[in-house]
């Protein structure tokens, strides 16, 4: 299994001239912890995460060191901290020199990358341009599907089924499903989406059942507003 099989295709991104306040609202409203920063050619030039917005003047959470650490800190370092906590532009607060993977990077390598570098997600690029993103949640969902993996499964067939199903759902006004919540393994479609009504839930299952090559549909869906226990 590779990045292309589990990644989120429709990635929310911002440009470096976006405002910090706008990004903060975006993270809060979408319930995500980071967004890639891209240039005019959709090339990834950085990432803005909750961690980058943790120490801000607006909330009184600027980074404070012990007096003796301030004494030994360089002027360049202190100036950098000031910019990070006071600038209103993404280009001044984003993390640069970020890690990335390609669509053919094995998920095992991605898992090691996330763990080793203590990051939650990594952008997927093709010729330097953003085409997707893989998060820890994507990998956990993929893991759940591969524990009882059948040796006869065809990754190419699974990928074709997934692409056809995503295309069908995208064409339906009632279907608001993130690609990350649709996983296909050995001809079995696993749906992790949330739903508003039982009819919407049933429609998602029907759409999956009608895709040629689908052996079975596994329903992992949760109703919007439902509470998870444990």
Looking at this protein, list some descriptive labels.
230 residues, alpha/beta, three-stranded mixed β-sheet, two-stranded antiparallel sheet, 9 strands, disordered C terminus
Task: Characterise the protein shown here.
Residues 226-230 have low confidence and may be disordered. It contains 9 helices and 9 strands. It is elongated. The protein has 230 residues and is of the alpha/beta class. The two termini are 29 Å apart. It has helices at 3-6, 20-30, 67-72, 75-86, 90-93, 107-117, 136-146, 155-170, 198-209; strands at 34-38, 44-49, 121-126, 129-135, 182-185, 188-191, 194-195, 216-219, 222-223.
Q: Round the Cα radius of gyration to an integer and report it.
A: 21 Å
* Structural class based on helices, strands and sheet pairing: alpha/beta
Strand order of the largest sheet: 5-6-8
How many beta-strand segments? Answer: 9
% residues in beta strands: 15-25%
Provide the succession of SSEs. HHEEHHHHEEHHEEEHEE
Principal-axis shape equals elongated
CATH topology of the domain at 149-223: Histidine-containing Protein, Chain: A
Low-pLDDT ranges: 226-230
Distance between the termini: 29 Å
Helix content: 25-40%
Average pLDDT score: 83
Question: What's the main sheet like?
Answer: 3 strands, mixed
Report the CATH architecture of the domain at 149-223.
2-Layer Sandwich
The CATH class of the domain at 149-223 is identified as Alpha Beta
Number of helices: 9
């Amino acid at each position: 299994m590779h990045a292309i099989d589990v990644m989120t295709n429709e990635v929310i991104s911002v440009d470096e001239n976006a405002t910090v306040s706008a990004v903060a609202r975006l993270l809060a409203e979408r319930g995500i912890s980071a967004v890639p920063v891209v240039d005019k050619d959709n090339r990834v030039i950085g990432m803005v995460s909750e961690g980058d917005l943790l120490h801000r003047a607006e909330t009184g959470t600027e980074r404070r060191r012990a007096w003796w650490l301030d004494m030994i800190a360089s002027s360049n370092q202190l100036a950098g901290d000031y910019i990070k906590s006071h600038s209103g532009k993404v280009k001044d607060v984003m993390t640069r020199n970020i890690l990335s993977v390609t669509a053919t990077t094995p998920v095992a390598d991605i898992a090691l990358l996330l763990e080793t570098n203590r990051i939650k997600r990594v952008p997927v690029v093709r010729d330097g341009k953003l085409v997707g993103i893989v998060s820890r949640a994507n990998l956990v969902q993929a893991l759940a599907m591969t524990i009882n993996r059948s040796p006869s499964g065809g990754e190419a067939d699974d990928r074709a089924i997934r692409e056809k199903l995503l295309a069908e759902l995208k064409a339906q006004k009632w279907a608001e499903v993130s690609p990350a919540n649709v996983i296909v393994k050995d001809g079995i479609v696993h749906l992790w989406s949330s739903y508003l009504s039982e009819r919407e839930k049933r429609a998602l299952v029907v759409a999956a059942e009608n895709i040629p090559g689908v052996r079975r549909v596994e329903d992992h869906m949760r109703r919007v507003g439902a509470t998870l226990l444990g």
